[in-house]
Amino acid sequence: MPPNPAAAPTFMVVGTLRDDTDLGEFAALREDEHKQLEVLRSQGRIGAHHVSPARRATFVEIVAADEGQVAEILATLPFARFFDADVYPLAPPAERTRS
Fold first, then answer.
1. For residue 96, what is the DSSP state?
2. Cβ 78 vs Cβ 21: under 8 Å
């Protein structure tokens, strides 16, 4: 059962492309990455996904119970091996709804 994004903890993952990345291999996996992102979106596990080519970075919103589950979700993405990831917990759901 997909998590309820309104009730589940959310994390922002900032991934920085490693300097030793083989860009040919990276490009070859692009379609696989997009397919897996769609699978995760349909399961309610991925929210926003942004890329900053100028900074060689990606930003991925992940809905997960904890940082261990975030790591498990990230591991399913073909591009994960090319990035160093920092995980930031966002405000708990109750705090996000307050103004």
1. H
2. no
pTM above 0.85, yes or no: no
pLDDT attached to residue 53: 85
| pLDDT value, residue 7 | 67
Q: Which residues of the chain have pLDDT under 50?
A: 1-2, 96, 99
Q: Which long-range contacts (CB under 8 A, 24 or more apart) does 23-26 make?
A: 26/79, 26/82
Give the span between the Cα atoms of 40 and 48, in whole angstroms: 11
Burial class of residue 31, CB neighbours in 10 A (0-12, 13-18, 19+) = exposed
Residues 6+ apart with CB under 8 A from 37: 46, 49, 77
